[in-house]
Protein 1
Amino acid sequence: MSEKKPVVTRELPTPGLCPVCGKASYSRNGTHPQCSAAKADTLARAARKAAGIETVKTPRKSWSKPCPKCKRQIPARRIVCDCGHTFAHVPTGPGAPIVHRVH
């Protein structure tokens, strides 16, 4: 018996590289769907920012709340703001009454 391995007569096409991430892509147009979506989002965001449509919001800090009177971000557990606004305090714990909100 012969121990020869079969010879490949046809070369397999090599996958194209994605122009966004540089990795092999097996999609029809050569770009990963998630890469093309990310690229389109980046271009759209840049166009909106250049046109002045998009406003940049400051990220909300966790464990903080805005004061409705002075619009400052204060720690969530504070009951009274520096401007004098008093937040509604709902007692919690084992002896606290159960409050049901009706909308």
Protein 2
Amino acid sequence: MSAIIKGLLRRFSTSIEDAGIDEAHLDISEAELPSEQIAAAIKQEINQATGLTCSIGIGPSKLLAKIASDLDKPDRLTIPTRRALRGADRRAWALASTSAAMPA
């Protein structure tokens, strides 16, 4: 099922990063269509091909897109506002800095 879904995703972007059996990151920054329209089409095609639903988050970075996707599940398309995202990158960098400094 994962291969079917990832095959569908490749029709929307040539820049796809596999992030696990049920997750992928697509770079649609240079797409001609609006990101919300692309995401809606992805959701529809996945459902038609597999009968499954999916949650999609759209953001200016992979991290923020992931956070957006996790904010509103299941079967949602989430595009957080600037206000909702304010400080999210800063908090993530702090987390990354802290975990990098932790002993193994």
